[in-house]
Design brief:
heterodimer; A: alpha+beta; Aldehyde Ferredoxin Oxidoreductase,  A, domain 1; seven-stranded mixed beta sheet; six-stranded mixed beta sheet; B: 5 strands; binds iron/sulfur cluster
């Protein structure tokens, strides 16, 4: 096992309650490094194409990273991957806080969750020991209550809790996985996957710091970062949060307003990061915001997280639910033409209580507002509600209705793309989705490389998957580290900008695999540059990786995601932009800006060529997969889209003896989707401390690796590396 | 000559809190944007607008100009 890692991955079958620990070989770690890429390995190996995202066969993988748990800033990150119930594509999202570091201290690099529990459970992990426990008494409760209950039940306030809220239980398609009641693995609806598995929470406590190969070098980088923050380009981010960017976005005509109809919001100052800091952060009344109104992730010197509160009034909100990020201020604010900061703080808190992605939630409400304004949705659809731009009270009401899947909220809980398909009447004209995921608050009309990335990103529109256009001009020395030295004019979408999009996408993809915070490590304005990231990774592991090797890890992960989609039959035809982006914006600095469809198609062709993907299908070619060590995804020399899938249960299910899943279809297909039956069980008397499945059940030796390899032949998604990375059966509950 | 300026976002902390990022400065004739930034103590990578037009650090200022300064990370460029 390399330094920095625990060398252990916990596998949990929620159907049978069986668990075991895998100890992969060192080359497994070097190939994927952690996070998203490591999780994707299991999804691609063990899942069939066509798996129901809300069924038992979806695999949910949670992985922290190479630096996680060390002292350097920006390292406590965890990526969740599974098939997305929002998009039907690969689902992927990152979150921070203290849970990722605590999971490493508790002895694990990641957790792979399969199956579906017959009743609500939570997973309790403490210093290498683990067990499933009954969670009936937690089901139906909001995040803050559950966190308190688990702290009391486990008699330790330092236990970190990763959980779903009621939205995840109710299978809201953009439900988030939450920690600290205010940090989210927000995007692509993976909270609903956890809800479908009836896994309410994972509680962890650990005391073992990861071993570091070169402590002196890592300490030097750590100290340099902490000392540099106040004079660095992330100083404002630390003090004012991501909300610092509201002014600049508005000025550039890039602050999405009225559901992306404009890039300019006249009342921007009311929702700006400085206003939030001056008036709503905890401690603002006596100038103590820096002490009480800012929070952090484990050992991060930037401290960018908001702690806001509303003391009284209709939007009264307690501070434990954090504070809005820029994205949230935009989606619940300018997207909806709302300038009421208290209402936005309340909506943010509701999302954190119920466990929902604030981007998809706010954007879906904005879509409903435009549909209502344009007469495509009426009171007969909304149950009598009048849903207009600027109505803060209605926005807050709808947010809660979505979390509860109540009334019109049940339709919006499906996400705007599904809702438009259900309603019809041309409501798709007002969508701002790519692959069914709502666009975040950075506008491709203004930053053209994002047009390409939003469309081609395997898990839908995303702003954290590449560096944005202005950085090419603003940070030339850092860009040169990754071979980018030809900055282009603003609004260009030529071959060099396509290359810029792809190269920075590879780097961001590596960041999500090494799993570090993209505010702390990155190619431009971040605290540490790319070469410093490589130095940190080598200091921790003792490896000798280079920038090109790092970039290849990112490219590998991106190709794995495309290969996953290809297996699902999702390729070029879904690399599209919403029609709305092809229409001119109105007002402000971006008045008249739009995406030219011909220019966009040309850029897409160039992108496939540079990625060495098939231009017709948009899928990775066998040659590309082979060159990245992903030959096991190629079957009979063909692209992954043509992979045949073995009938019956997955290899994983066969191995664990799991029964066929009881739920096969997406539960929430209709407007008035029923709540899952298990919700009723919440009223049952808790069996709080009785373990449902103890770790010792996993201590039995697993079938030998060669048996596994033999079974692997039965499924088309072969994995030549299987022998190397196969689980080494160990007594699972052994203390570290 | 005299110019009016506003420092947006976290850049406002270069001035006393009560200024809220706004102020005026007396500069020598022929001073450029870079001189203004140096006088204000701006060290971060920034986007500068003069009378609502994006300008480089070498841009020569005129009496009565209105300057807006954004940190590059926040956008601001048109
Ligand atoms: S910069 Fe912010 S989000 Fe990133 S690790 Fe630090 S505190 Fe967490």
């Amino acid at each position: 096992m390399p330094y920095g890692y625990t060398g252990k991955i916990l596998h949990v079958d929620l159907t049978s309650g069986k668990m075991h620990v895998e100890q992969p070989q060192p080359d497994f770690y070097r190939r994927y490094m952690g996070g998203s890429a490591m999780g994707l390995h299991y999804l691609l190996r063990d899942m069939r194409a066509g798996t129901d995202p809300l069924g038992a066969d979806n695999v949910l993988a949670l992985f922290n990273g190479l630096l996680t748990g060390t002292a350097i800033s920006g390292q406590s990150r965890m990526t969740a991957v599974a098939k997305s119930p929002l998009t039907g594509c690969i689902g992927d999202s990152q979150g921070g806080g203290f849970f990722p570091a605590e999971l490493k201290f508790a002895g694990f690099d990641g957790i792979v969750l399969r199956g579906q529990s017959p009743r609500p459970v939570y997973l309790w992990i403490k210093d290498g020991e683990f067990e499933l426990r009954d969670a009936a008494h937690l089901w139906g409760r909001i995040t803050g209550d559950v966190e308190d209950a688990l702290h009391a039940e486990l008699d330790d306030n330092r236990v970190e809790v990763l959980q779903i809220g009621p939205a995840g239980e109710n299978l809201v398609r953009y439900a988030a996985i939450m920690s600290m009641s205010n940090r989210a693995n927000g995007r692509t609806g993976l909270g609903a996957v956890m809800g479908a598995k009836k896994l309410k929470a994972i509680a962890v406590r650990g005391t073992h710091k990861p071993a570091v190969a070169d402590k002196a070098s890592l300490m030097e980088l750590t100290k340099w970062g902490a000392k540099t923050v106040p004079t660095s380009d992330v100083a404002g981010l630390g003090k004012y949060g991501t909300a610092e960017v509201v002014a600049g976005q508005h000025r550039a005509g890039g602050l999405p307003t009225r559901n992306f109809s404009s890039g300019s919001f006249d009342d921007w100052e009311k929702i700006d990061g400085t206003t939030l800091y001056d008036t709503r952060l905890k401690g603002a009344e006596n100038g103590q915001q820096d002490r009480f109104g800012r929070d952090t992730c484990y050992s991060c010197a930037v401290r960018c997280k908001r702690v806001s509160e509303v003391a009284e009034g209709p939007y009264k909100t307690e501070h434990r639910y954090g504070g809005p990020e820029y994205e949230t201020l935009a989606t619940f604010g300018s997207y909806c033409a709302i300038d009421d900061l208290d209402a936005i703080i309340r909506a943010n808190a509701l999302c954190n209580m119920y466990g929902m992605d604030t981007i998809s939630c706010g954007a879906t409400i904005a879509w409903a507002m435009e549909c209502f304004e344009k007469g495509r949705i009426g009171v007969e659809d909304t149950g009598g509600l009048t849903i207009r731009y600027g109505d803060a009270a209605m926005m807050v009401k709808l947010t809660e209705m979505i979390g509860k899947r109540e009334g019109f909220g049940a339709l919006l809980a499906e996400g705007s793309a599904r809702a438009a398909a259900i309603v019809g009447r041309g409501t798709d004209e007002y969508l701002i989705t790519s692959k069914g995921q709502e666009a975040p608050a950075h506008m491709p009309q203004v930053k053209r490389s994002l047009a390409l990335v939003y469309a081609a990103n395997p898990f839908g529109a995303d702003h954290q998957s590449s560096e944005h256009d202005p950085s090419y001009t603003d940070y030339p020395q850092r860009m040169a580290q990754i071979g980018l030295d030809k900055p282009q004019e603003k609004l260009a979408l030529n071959e060099e900008i396509v290359r810029y999009a792809m190269v920075t996408q590879h780097l961001y993809s590596a960041l999500d695999s090494i799993n570090v915070c993209q505010f702390v490590f990155g190619p431009a304005w971040q605290l540490y540059d790319t070469e410093q990231l490589v130095q940190a990774a080598n200091a921790v592991t003792g490896w000798d990786i280079t920038v090109p090797e790092l970039m290849e890890v990112g490219e590998r992960r991106l190709n794995m995601m495309r290969a996953f989609n290809a297996r699902e039959g999702i390729g070029r035809e879904s690399d599209t932009l919403p029609k709305k982006f092809m229409k001119p914006l109105a007002g402000g600095k971006s008045d008249g800006y739009m995406i030219d469809s011909n220019q966009f198609e040309d850029a897409l062709n160039t992108y496939y060529r540079l990625c060495e993907w098939d231009a017709v299908t948009g899928n990775p070619t066998p040659a590309k997969l082979n060159s990245l060590g992903l030959g096991w995804l190629v079957v009979d020399g063909k692209q992954p889209a043509r992979v045949k899938v073995a009938a019956g249960r997955s290899a994983a299910a066969k191995k664990t003896g799991a029964k066929k899943p009881a739920i096969k279809q997406p539960i929430a297909k209709k407007v008035a989707a029923k709540k899952p039956a298990a919700k009723k069980r919440a009223v049952k008397k808790p069996v709080a401390k009785k373990p449902i499945a103890k770790a010792k059940s996993a201590a039995k030796p697993k079938p030998a690796a060669r048996k596994r390899a033999a079974k692997a032949k039965a499924v088309a998604t072969r994995r030549p590396a299987a022998k190397k990375t196969a689980a080494k059966s160990k007594p699972a509950a052994r203390k570290r | 000559m005299r110019v009016e300026f506003r420092l947006y976002g976290g850049l406002r902390d270069l001035l006393p809190a009560e200024a809220r990022g706004r102020g005026e400065l007396e500069l020598v004739t022929g001073a450029a944007v870079a001189d203004l930034l140096a006088q204000l103590g701006v060290q971060r990578t920034v986007v500068v607008a003069c009378n609502d037009e994006d300008v480089p650090a070498t841009h020569a200022l005129q009496d009565g100009d209105k300057i807006a300064v954004f940190s590059a990370v926040s956008g601001g460029r048109i």
